[in-house]
């Protein structure tokens, strides 16, 4: 009985702690329709946050490449591509990295911050954070 209780407590603690992290899979939704257009996995490498596209909803875009990219991702498949690179934790947000918009091939400075356990604020900008765009990713269930 003790083992069962301890196991349940550990499982509950793990689930609660995991829900309070930026890491995991997130749904990016089309701003006009609200439908999920891709799933992005945020992961940690060498103490920094990165994210890659792991699912694309539109079957016609499964093999799409970043033809507008100007860096080493030019003409690389978007599915599996890192779009968020090198963010460092700074209090309750992650910043100091970059985000790629693969549809436009543009790279922006960015920061991300949890807004509740299932919503992630992603802000891309040029120069100062005041001049940019915010999107919200929703935790994949």
Automatic annotation (TrEMBL):
Keywords in alphabetical order: Signal
InterPro entries attached to this UniProt entry: DUF2147
Signal peptide per UniProt: 1-19
Protein name: Signal peptide protein
Pfam families cross-referenced by the UniProt entry: DUF2147
Residues of the DUF2147 domain: 24-139
PANTHER family membership: BLL5882 PROTEIN, BLR1215 PROTEIN
Coiled coil: none
